[in-house]
Design brief:
Distance between the termini: 21 Å
Structural class: mainly alpha
Order of helices and strands: HHHHHHHHHHHHHHHHHHHHHH
Number of strands: 0
Strand content: under 5%
Shape: globular
Largest sheet: none
Radius of gyration: 23 Å
Length: 515
Protein backbone atom coordinates (compact mmCIF):
# COMPACT_ATOMS: atom_id res chain seq x y z
CA UNK A 1 0.00 0.00 0.00
CA UNK A 2 1.36 3.48 -0.85
CA UNK A 3 2.31 6.17 1.69
CA UNK A 4 -0.98 8.02 1.36
CA UNK A 5 -2.93 4.84 2.03
CA UNK A 6 -0.84 4.24 5.15
CA UNK A 7 -1.61 7.78 6.27
CA UNK A 8 -5.32 7.27 5.78
CA UNK A 9 -5.26 4.03 7.76
CA UNK A 10 -3.28 5.73 10.53
CA UNK A 11 -5.78 8.58 10.73
CA UNK A 12 -8.59 6.07 11.08
CA UNK A 13 -6.72 4.33 13.91
CA UNK A 14 -6.21 7.68 15.67
CA UNK A 15 -9.88 8.52 15.17
CA UNK A 16 -11.08 5.18 16.57
CA UNK A 17 -8.68 5.38 19.49
CA UNK A 18 -9.55 9.00 20.09
CA UNK A 19 -13.22 8.09 20.51
CA UNK A 20 -12.42 5.76 23.42
CA UNK A 21 -9.84 8.08 24.95
CA UNK A 22 -12.08 11.11 24.49
CA UNK A 23 -14.98 9.47 26.32
CA UNK A 24 -12.62 8.51 29.13
CA UNK A 25 -11.00 11.94 29.29
CA UNK A 26 -14.32 13.79 29.29
CA UNK A 27 -15.70 11.55 32.04
CA UNK A 28 -12.46 11.85 34.01
CA UNK A 29 -12.48 15.64 33.76
CA UNK A 30 -16.16 15.74 34.68
CA UNK A 31 -15.63 13.57 37.76
CA UNK A 32 -12.52 15.51 38.76
CA UNK A 33 -14.36 18.79 38.26
CA UNK A 34 -17.26 17.52 40.32
CA UNK A 35 -14.93 16.54 43.17
CA UNK A 36 -13.17 19.92 43.00
CA UNK A 37 -16.48 21.76 42.88
CA UNK A 38 -17.72 19.89 45.94
CA UNK A 39 -14.52 20.68 47.83
CA UNK A 40 -14.62 24.32 46.68
CA UNK A 41 -18.25 24.76 47.71
CA UNK A 42 -18.24 22.62 50.90
CA UNK A 43 -15.07 24.11 52.40
CA UNK A 44 -13.84 27.71 52.39
CA UNK A 45 -11.59 29.22 49.73
CA UNK A 46 -8.50 28.90 51.95
CA UNK A 47 -9.03 25.14 52.38
CA UNK A 48 -9.70 24.69 48.67
CA UNK A 49 -6.46 26.55 47.97
CA UNK A 50 -4.61 24.33 50.45
CA UNK A 51 -6.02 21.25 48.72
CA UNK A 52 -4.71 22.62 45.40
CA UNK A 53 -1.24 23.21 46.84
CA UNK A 54 -1.12 19.69 48.29
CA UNK A 55 -2.16 18.11 44.99
CA UNK A 56 0.37 20.27 43.14
CA UNK A 57 3.28 19.12 45.29
CA UNK A 58 2.07 15.52 45.09
CA UNK A 59 1.91 15.73 41.29
CA UNK A 60 5.44 17.14 41.09
CA UNK A 61 6.70 14.28 43.29
CA UNK A 62 4.92 11.77 41.05
CA UNK A 63 6.41 13.35 37.92
CA UNK A 64 9.94 13.04 39.31
CA UNK A 65 9.31 9.43 40.39
CA UNK A 66 8.07 8.47 36.91
CA UNK A 67 11.52 9.32 35.48
CA UNK A 68 9.86 10.14 32.15
CA UNK A 69 9.04 6.46 31.64
CA UNK A 70 5.32 7.14 31.08
CA UNK A 71 6.38 8.59 27.69
CA UNK A 72 9.56 6.59 27.12
CA UNK A 73 8.12 3.12 27.70
CA UNK A 74 5.36 3.27 25.03
CA UNK A 75 7.87 4.37 22.40
CA UNK A 76 10.42 1.72 23.37
CA UNK A 77 7.81 -1.06 23.59
CA UNK A 78 6.44 -0.07 20.18
CA UNK A 79 9.98 -0.20 18.78
CA UNK A 80 10.90 -3.50 20.48
CA UNK A 81 7.70 -5.20 19.27
CA UNK A 82 8.90 -4.70 15.69
CA UNK A 83 12.24 -6.52 15.96
CA UNK A 84 13.04 -7.60 19.57
CA UNK A 85 9.73 -8.87 20.90
CA UNK A 86 11.38 -11.32 23.31
CA UNK A 87 12.97 -8.42 25.23
CA UNK A 88 9.64 -6.67 25.98
CA UNK A 89 8.99 -8.43 29.35
CA UNK A 90 12.44 -7.42 30.61
CA UNK A 91 11.85 -3.88 29.35
CA UNK A 92 8.54 -3.63 31.23
CA UNK A 93 9.72 -5.07 34.55
CA UNK A 94 12.92 -3.02 34.47
CA UNK A 95 11.04 0.22 33.85
CA UNK A 96 8.55 -0.48 36.65
CA UNK A 97 11.31 -1.36 39.11
CA UNK A 98 13.13 1.88 38.34
CA UNK A 99 10.04 4.05 38.84
CA UNK A 100 8.83 2.31 42.01
CA UNK A 101 12.25 2.74 43.60
CA UNK A 102 12.18 6.44 42.74
CA UNK A 103 8.62 6.75 44.07
CA UNK A 104 9.61 5.42 47.51
CA UNK A 105 12.40 8.00 47.64
CA UNK A 106 9.87 10.73 46.80
CA UNK A 107 7.51 9.58 49.56
CA UNK A 108 10.30 10.00 52.12
CA UNK A 109 11.33 13.40 50.73
CA UNK A 110 7.74 14.67 50.69
CA UNK A 111 7.21 13.73 54.34
CA UNK A 112 10.53 15.23 55.41
CA UNK A 113 10.01 18.51 53.51
CA UNK A 114 6.38 19.07 54.60
CA UNK A 115 7.23 21.07 57.80
CA UNK A 116 9.42 23.43 55.75
CA UNK A 117 6.99 23.83 52.84
CA UNK A 118 4.02 24.78 55.06
CA UNK A 119 5.41 28.15 56.29
CA UNK A 120 7.04 28.84 52.91
CA UNK A 121 3.62 28.70 51.20
CA UNK A 122 1.75 30.32 54.12
CA UNK A 123 -0.36 27.16 54.49
CA UNK A 124 -1.30 26.02 57.98
CA UNK A 125 -2.56 22.63 56.72
CA UNK A 126 0.32 21.51 54.50
CA UNK A 127 2.52 19.88 57.16
CA UNK A 128 -0.42 17.56 57.92
CA UNK A 129 -1.89 16.97 54.45
CA UNK A 130 1.38 16.15 52.65
CA UNK A 131 2.41 13.24 54.94
CA UNK A 132 -1.19 12.03 54.84
CA UNK A 133 -1.28 11.99 51.04
CA UNK A 134 2.28 10.94 50.12
CA UNK A 135 1.63 7.14 50.40
CA UNK A 136 -0.43 7.51 47.20
CA UNK A 137 2.70 8.30 45.14
CA UNK A 138 3.89 4.70 44.42
CA UNK A 139 0.38 3.64 43.45
CA UNK A 140 -0.10 6.66 41.17
CA UNK A 141 3.25 5.87 39.52
CA UNK A 142 2.36 2.20 39.07
CA UNK A 143 -0.96 3.11 37.44
CA UNK A 144 0.73 5.52 35.03
CA UNK A 145 3.36 2.96 34.02
CA UNK A 146 0.95 0.09 33.50
CA UNK A 147 -1.20 2.34 31.32
CA UNK A 148 1.97 3.29 29.43
CA UNK A 149 2.72 -0.41 28.87
CA UNK A 150 -0.76 -1.01 27.45
CA UNK A 151 -0.34 2.08 25.30
CA UNK A 152 2.89 0.66 23.87
CA UNK A 153 0.85 -2.38 22.80
CA UNK A 154 -1.62 -0.07 21.02
CA UNK A 155 -4.39 -0.45 23.62
CA UNK A 156 -6.49 2.35 25.13
CA UNK A 157 -8.97 0.50 27.36
CA UNK A 158 -6.69 0.31 30.39
CA UNK A 159 -6.24 4.08 30.21
CA UNK A 160 -10.02 4.48 30.02
CA UNK A 161 -10.93 2.20 32.90
CA UNK A 162 -8.04 2.38 35.34
CA UNK A 163 -6.71 5.89 34.90
CA UNK A 164 -9.54 8.02 33.55
CA UNK A 165 -12.57 6.49 35.24
CA UNK A 166 -11.81 4.44 38.32
CA UNK A 167 -9.60 6.80 40.40
CA UNK A 168 -11.81 9.93 40.08
CA UNK A 169 -15.00 7.87 40.44
CA UNK A 170 -13.76 6.17 43.61
CA UNK A 171 -12.49 9.50 44.98
CA UNK A 172 -15.83 11.17 44.32
CA UNK A 173 -17.82 8.31 45.89
CA UNK A 174 -15.63 8.04 49.00
CA UNK A 175 -15.48 11.84 49.35
CA UNK A 176 -19.25 12.28 49.18
CA UNK A 177 -19.86 9.37 51.56
CA UNK A 178 -17.42 10.85 54.06
CA UNK A 179 -18.82 14.38 53.87
CA UNK A 180 -22.38 13.08 54.27
CA UNK A 181 -21.21 11.19 57.36
CA UNK A 182 -19.76 14.43 58.75
CA UNK A 183 -16.05 13.87 58.03
CA UNK A 184 -13.73 16.87 58.25
CA UNK A 185 -11.25 18.49 55.88
CA UNK A 186 -8.43 15.94 56.27
CA UNK A 187 -10.74 13.14 55.14
CA UNK A 188 -10.49 14.58 51.62
CA UNK A 189 -6.88 13.38 51.48
CA UNK A 190 -7.64 9.98 53.00
CA UNK A 191 -10.29 9.48 50.30
CA UNK A 192 -7.75 10.40 47.63
CA UNK A 193 -5.18 7.86 48.85
CA UNK A 194 -7.75 5.06 49.09
CA UNK A 195 -8.97 5.73 45.53
CA UNK A 196 -5.42 5.59 44.12
CA UNK A 197 -4.50 2.40 45.98
CA UNK A 198 -7.63 0.50 44.91
CA UNK A 199 -7.35 1.59 41.26
CA UNK A 200 -3.70 0.62 41.06
CA UNK A 201 -4.18 -2.84 42.59
CA UNK A 202 -7.05 -3.61 40.22
CA UNK A 203 -4.90 -2.57 37.24
CA UNK A 204 -2.05 -4.81 38.43
CA UNK A 205 -4.43 -7.77 38.43
CA UNK A 206 -5.68 -6.89 34.92
CA UNK A 207 -2.14 -6.45 33.61
CA UNK A 208 -1.19 -9.95 34.78
CA UNK A 209 -4.31 -11.31 33.11
CA UNK A 210 -3.42 -9.64 29.81
CA UNK A 211 0.18 -10.87 29.99
CA UNK A 212 1.68 -7.36 30.11
CA UNK A 213 3.50 -8.13 33.37
CA UNK A 214 5.98 -11.01 33.46
CA UNK A 215 5.28 -13.61 36.15
CA UNK A 216 8.95 -13.52 37.05
CA UNK A 217 10.37 -9.97 37.17
CA UNK A 218 13.61 -9.42 35.26
CA UNK A 219 16.07 -6.61 36.00
CA UNK A 220 18.24 -5.89 32.97
CA UNK A 221 20.93 -3.34 33.86
CA UNK A 222 21.68 -2.64 30.22
CA UNK A 223 18.03 -1.70 29.76
CA UNK A 224 18.20 0.47 32.90
CA UNK A 225 20.86 2.58 31.22
CA UNK A 226 19.02 2.65 27.89
CA UNK A 227 15.68 3.61 29.46
CA UNK A 228 17.23 6.16 31.77
CA UNK A 229 19.19 7.94 29.04
CA UNK A 230 16.17 8.09 26.73
CA UNK A 231 13.65 9.00 29.44
CA UNK A 232 15.74 11.51 31.42
CA UNK A 233 14.94 14.40 29.06
CA UNK A 234 11.27 13.35 29.24
CA UNK A 235 11.36 13.43 33.05
CA UNK A 236 12.94 16.87 33.07
CA UNK A 237 10.42 17.97 30.45
CA UNK A 238 7.61 16.70 32.68
CA UNK A 239 8.97 18.59 35.67
CA UNK A 240 9.22 21.75 33.60
CA UNK A 241 5.64 21.15 32.41
CA UNK A 242 4.61 21.32 36.05
CA UNK A 243 6.71 24.44 36.52
CA UNK A 244 4.78 25.99 33.63
CA UNK A 245 1.43 24.74 34.84
CA UNK A 246 1.68 25.01 38.62
CA UNK A 247 4.33 27.61 39.52
CA UNK A 248 1.53 30.18 39.46
CA UNK A 249 -0.33 28.42 42.29
CA UNK A 250 2.84 27.82 44.32
CA UNK A 251 4.00 31.42 43.96
CA UNK A 252 0.56 32.82 44.75
CA UNK A 253 0.80 30.79 47.97
CA UNK A 254 4.26 32.22 48.61
CA UNK A 255 3.32 35.87 48.01
CA UNK A 256 -0.24 35.71 49.37
CA UNK A 257 -1.99 32.71 50.95
CA UNK A 258 -4.14 29.67 50.06
CA UNK A 259 -7.24 31.87 49.83
CA UNK A 260 -5.73 33.59 46.78
CA UNK A 261 -4.65 30.21 45.43
CA UNK A 262 -8.24 29.01 45.84
CA UNK A 263 -9.61 32.03 43.94
CA UNK A 264 -7.12 31.50 41.09
CA UNK A 265 -8.07 27.82 40.92
CA UNK A 266 -11.64 28.79 40.20
CA UNK A 267 -10.21 29.73 36.76
CA UNK A 268 -7.16 27.54 36.10
CA UNK A 269 -8.91 24.12 35.97
CA UNK A 270 -11.45 25.49 33.47
CA UNK A 271 -8.70 26.78 31.18
CA UNK A 272 -7.02 23.37 31.36
CA UNK A 273 -10.13 21.89 29.75
CA UNK A 274 -9.08 23.35 26.41
CA UNK A 275 -6.41 20.73 25.51
CA UNK A 276 -9.00 17.98 26.11
CA UNK A 277 -9.28 16.93 22.45
CA UNK A 278 -5.55 17.48 21.85
CA UNK A 279 -4.58 15.14 24.69
CA UNK A 280 -7.20 12.57 23.70
CA UNK A 281 -5.92 12.38 20.14
CA UNK A 282 -2.35 12.32 21.37
CA UNK A 283 -2.74 9.08 23.29
CA UNK A 284 -2.47 6.94 20.13
CA UNK A 285 -0.73 9.55 17.99
CA UNK A 286 2.83 8.96 19.20
CA UNK A 287 3.20 5.23 18.43
CA UNK A 288 1.70 5.79 14.97
CA UNK A 289 3.87 8.85 14.32
CA UNK A 290 6.92 6.86 15.46
CA UNK A 291 6.09 4.12 12.96
CA UNK A 292 5.88 6.69 10.12
CA UNK A 293 9.21 8.24 11.06
CA UNK A 294 11.12 4.98 11.51
CA UNK A 295 9.89 3.80 8.10
CA UNK A 296 11.05 7.07 6.51
CA UNK A 297 7.54 8.25 5.58
CA UNK A 298 7.88 11.96 6.39
CA UNK A 299 4.99 12.86 4.08
CA UNK A 300 2.75 10.49 6.02
CA UNK A 301 3.86 12.04 9.32
CA UNK A 302 3.21 15.55 7.94
CA UNK A 303 -0.29 14.60 6.82
CA UNK A 304 -1.02 12.94 10.18
CA UNK A 305 0.19 16.01 12.10
CA UNK A 306 -1.69 18.57 10.02
CA UNK A 307 -4.95 16.67 9.88
CA UNK A 308 -5.05 15.94 13.61
CA UNK A 309 -4.22 19.59 14.37
CA UNK A 310 -7.13 20.80 12.23
CA UNK A 311 -9.56 18.33 13.80
CA UNK A 312 -8.49 19.35 17.29
CA UNK A 313 -8.96 23.06 16.59
CA UNK A 314 -12.47 22.57 15.18
CA UNK A 315 -13.52 20.45 18.17
CA UNK A 316 -11.98 22.82 20.73
CA UNK A 317 -13.34 26.01 19.17
CA UNK A 318 -16.76 26.12 20.93
CA UNK A 319 -15.18 25.48 24.35
CA UNK A 320 -12.70 28.32 23.82
CA UNK A 321 -15.46 30.59 22.54
CA UNK A 322 -17.58 29.99 25.66
CA UNK A 323 -14.72 30.32 28.15
CA UNK A 324 -13.07 33.36 26.54
CA UNK A 325 -16.21 35.38 25.76
CA UNK A 326 -18.19 34.42 28.90
CA UNK A 327 -15.64 33.75 31.67
CA UNK A 328 -18.00 34.73 34.52
CA UNK A 329 -20.64 32.26 33.32
CA UNK A 330 -18.05 29.49 33.00
CA UNK A 331 -16.71 30.03 36.53
CA UNK A 332 -20.16 30.37 38.08
CA UNK A 333 -21.27 27.14 36.38
CA UNK A 334 -18.48 25.07 37.91
CA UNK A 335 -17.33 26.76 41.10
CA UNK A 336 -20.01 29.22 42.13
CA UNK A 337 -20.20 33.01 42.53
CA UNK A 338 -17.46 33.32 45.16
CA UNK A 339 -14.87 32.57 42.44
CA UNK A 340 -16.11 34.90 39.65
CA UNK A 341 -13.47 37.52 40.53
CA UNK A 342 -11.10 35.26 38.61
CA UNK A 343 -12.86 35.99 35.28
CA UNK A 344 -10.05 38.10 33.81
CA UNK A 345 -7.48 35.48 34.81
CA UNK A 346 -9.59 32.83 33.06
CA UNK A 347 -9.71 34.83 29.84
CA UNK A 348 -5.91 35.24 29.86
CA UNK A 349 -5.28 31.58 30.67
CA UNK A 350 -7.70 30.36 28.01
CA UNK A 351 -5.84 32.35 25.35
CA UNK A 352 -2.55 30.72 26.36
CA UNK A 353 -3.97 27.21 26.38
CA UNK A 354 -5.73 27.76 23.05
CA UNK A 355 -2.41 28.72 21.48
CA UNK A 356 -1.10 25.38 22.76
CA UNK A 357 -4.03 23.64 21.04
CA UNK A 358 -3.50 25.56 17.79
CA UNK A 359 0.07 24.27 17.45
CA UNK A 360 -1.07 20.64 17.59
CA UNK A 361 0.89 17.63 18.82
CA UNK A 362 4.33 19.16 18.30
CA UNK A 363 5.76 17.78 21.55
CA UNK A 364 4.68 14.21 20.83
CA UNK A 365 5.93 14.57 17.26
CA UNK A 366 9.37 15.50 18.60
CA UNK A 367 9.39 12.39 20.79
CA UNK A 368 8.32 10.29 17.80
CA UNK A 369 11.22 11.59 15.67
CA UNK A 370 13.72 10.92 18.46
CA UNK A 371 14.14 14.51 19.64
CA UNK A 372 12.87 14.50 23.26
CA UNK A 373 15.64 16.91 24.28
CA UNK A 374 14.01 19.59 22.10
CA UNK A 375 10.91 19.41 24.32
CA UNK A 376 13.20 19.79 27.31
CA UNK A 377 14.88 22.87 25.85
CA UNK A 378 11.57 24.47 24.92
CA UNK A 379 10.16 23.84 28.36
CA UNK A 380 13.34 25.18 29.94
CA UNK A 381 12.93 28.51 28.14
CA UNK A 382 9.23 28.56 28.99
CA UNK A 383 9.74 27.66 32.66
CA UNK A 384 12.39 30.35 33.04
CA UNK A 385 10.01 32.91 31.53
CA UNK A 386 7.22 31.65 33.78
CA UNK A 387 9.20 31.99 37.00
CA UNK A 388 10.63 35.39 36.05
CA UNK A 389 7.23 36.79 35.05
CA UNK A 390 5.57 35.38 38.16
CA UNK A 391 8.18 37.09 40.35
CA UNK A 392 7.60 40.40 38.58
CA UNK A 393 3.84 40.29 37.99
CA UNK A 394 2.26 38.47 40.96
CA UNK A 395 3.19 41.05 43.65
CA UNK A 396 1.68 43.81 41.45
CA UNK A 397 -1.24 42.18 39.63
CA UNK A 398 -2.02 39.11 41.76
CA UNK A 399 -3.89 36.32 39.97
CA UNK A 400 -3.99 38.21 36.66
CA UNK A 401 -0.18 38.45 36.76
CA UNK A 402 0.04 34.71 37.41
CA UNK A 403 -2.27 34.07 34.43
CA UNK A 404 -0.11 36.19 32.10
CA UNK A 405 3.02 34.33 33.22
CA UNK A 406 1.44 30.94 32.54
CA UNK A 407 0.00 31.99 29.16
CA UNK A 408 3.35 33.40 28.00
CA UNK A 409 5.15 30.21 29.07
CA UNK A 410 2.83 28.03 26.96
CA UNK A 411 3.26 30.29 23.95
CA UNK A 412 7.05 30.19 24.37
CA UNK A 413 7.23 26.41 24.67
CA UNK A 414 5.00 25.83 21.64
CA UNK A 415 6.84 28.30 19.42
CA UNK A 416 10.12 26.57 20.20
CA UNK A 417 8.76 23.05 19.69
CA UNK A 418 7.12 23.95 16.38
CA UNK A 419 10.29 25.68 15.15
CA UNK A 420 12.49 22.73 16.09
CA UNK A 421 10.13 20.17 14.52
CA UNK A 422 10.17 22.17 11.28
CA UNK A 423 13.97 22.46 11.44
CA UNK A 424 14.36 18.70 11.96
CA UNK A 425 11.71 17.37 9.54
CA UNK A 426 10.33 20.27 7.50
CA UNK A 427 6.93 19.69 9.13
CA UNK A 428 4.69 22.47 10.47
CA UNK A 429 0.92 22.60 11.13
CA UNK A 430 0.02 25.53 8.87
CA UNK A 431 -1.31 24.01 5.69
CA UNK A 432 -3.64 26.17 3.59
CA UNK A 433 -6.77 24.34 4.76
CA UNK A 434 -5.76 24.81 8.39
CA UNK A 435 -5.27 28.55 7.90
CA UNK A 436 -8.75 28.75 6.33
CA UNK A 437 -10.05 26.96 9.44
CA UNK A 438 -8.00 28.88 12.01
CA UNK A 439 -8.27 32.53 11.00
CA UNK A 440 -12.08 32.76 10.66
CA UNK A 441 -12.46 31.03 14.02
CA UNK A 442 -10.19 33.46 15.82
CA UNK A 443 -11.94 36.36 14.09
CA UNK A 444 -15.35 35.15 15.30
CA UNK A 445 -14.11 34.82 18.89
CA UNK A 446 -12.65 38.32 18.85
CA UNK A 447 -15.75 39.82 17.25
CA UNK A 448 -18.13 38.11 19.69
CA UNK A 449 -16.04 39.27 22.65
CA UNK A 450 -16.15 42.89 21.41
CA UNK A 451 -19.96 42.80 21.40
CA UNK A 452 -19.86 42.66 25.22
CA UNK A 453 -22.90 40.38 25.56
CA UNK A 454 -23.87 39.84 29.20
CA UNK A 455 -26.97 37.83 30.03
CA UNK A 456 -26.09 34.90 32.22
CA UNK A 457 -25.49 31.23 31.46
CA UNK A 458 -28.48 30.63 29.14
CA UNK A 459 -27.61 33.59 26.89
CA UNK A 460 -23.94 32.56 26.91
CA UNK A 461 -24.79 29.01 25.86
CA UNK A 462 -27.19 30.19 23.13
CA UNK A 463 -24.65 32.63 21.66
CA UNK A 464 -21.92 29.97 21.75
CA UNK A 465 -24.10 27.46 19.88
CA UNK A 466 -25.19 30.05 17.28
CA UNK A 467 -21.64 31.28 16.60
CA UNK A 468 -20.28 27.73 16.38
CA UNK A 469 -23.01 26.77 13.90
CA UNK A 470 -22.11 29.81 11.81
CA UNK A 471 -18.43 28.89 12.04
CA UNK A 472 -19.04 25.34 10.77
CA UNK A 473 -21.06 26.67 7.83
CA UNK A 474 -18.32 29.20 7.06
CA UNK A 475 -15.46 26.70 6.97
CA UNK A 476 -17.53 24.38 4.79
CA UNK A 477 -18.12 27.22 2.33
CA UNK A 478 -14.39 27.91 2.39
CA UNK A 479 -13.85 24.28 1.30
CA UNK A 480 -11.61 23.24 4.17
CA UNK A 481 -12.87 19.62 4.20
CA UNK A 482 -10.47 16.88 3.10
CA UNK A 483 -10.99 13.29 2.03
CA UNK A 484 -9.48 12.17 5.36
CA UNK A 485 -12.53 13.74 7.03
CA UNK A 486 -14.77 11.37 5.06
CA UNK A 487 -12.64 8.45 6.23
CA UNK A 488 -12.97 9.67 9.81
CA UNK A 489 -16.76 9.57 9.43
CA UNK A 490 -16.48 6.05 7.99
CA UNK A 491 -14.39 5.00 10.99
CA UNK A 492 -17.09 6.33 13.32
CA UNK A 493 -19.75 4.50 11.29
CA UNK A 494 -17.85 1.24 11.55
CA UNK A 495 -17.33 1.73 15.27
CA UNK A 496 -20.88 2.70 16.20
CA UNK A 497 -23.01 1.08 13.46
CA UNK A 498 -24.59 4.50 12.81
CA UNK A 499 -25.51 5.54 9.26
CA UNK A 500 -23.75 8.87 8.66
CA UNK A 501 -24.27 8.91 4.91
CA UNK A 502 -25.86 12.41 4.85
CA UNK A 503 -22.86 13.85 6.72
CA UNK A 504 -20.44 12.19 4.29
CA UNK A 505 -22.39 13.48 1.30
CA UNK A 506 -22.41 16.99 2.75
CA UNK A 507 -18.66 16.99 3.36
CA UNK A 508 -17.95 15.53 -0.08
CA UNK A 509 -19.53 18.62 -1.65
CA UNK A 510 -16.96 20.85 0.05
CA UNK A 511 -13.73 18.89 -0.44
CA UNK A 512 -10.70 21.11 -0.86
CA UNK A 513 -8.21 20.61 -3.63
CA UNK A 514 -5.27 21.61 -1.41
CA UNK A 515 -3.86 20.42 1.95
Amino acid sequence: MNGLGETERALQRVARGMGIVLVGTVLSMFLTFLSRAIIARYFDRYQYGSFTLTMTILSIAMTVALLGLQSGLPREISRYLRDRREKVPALVSTGIAMALTASLVMVVLTVLLAPSLAPLLNDRYLDETLPLTSPAIPFMVLTMLLVAVSRGHGRVRENLYYRNLLPPLLFLAILVAGLVAGAGYTFVFVAYVISQVLSSLLLVRESFRLGFLPKKPVMDWKLVRELFLFSLPLMLTGILDYVMGWTDSLMLGYYFDPDTVGLYNGAAPIARLLPLFLNSMGFLYMPIATAFFTSGDIDGLRKLYRTTTRWVFILTFPVFLFVFVFPESAINLFFGPKYTDAATALRILSAGFMFHVMMGLNGMSLIAVGEPSANLTGNLFAAAANVALNIVLIPIYGIEGAAVATAVSYVTANLYRTWWLHRKTGIHPFGWNYLKTLLPGLGLVGGTALLGIDGGLIIAAAVTIAVYAGYVILILLLRTAEKEDIELIEAVEARTGTNLGPVKRLLSRFISGTG
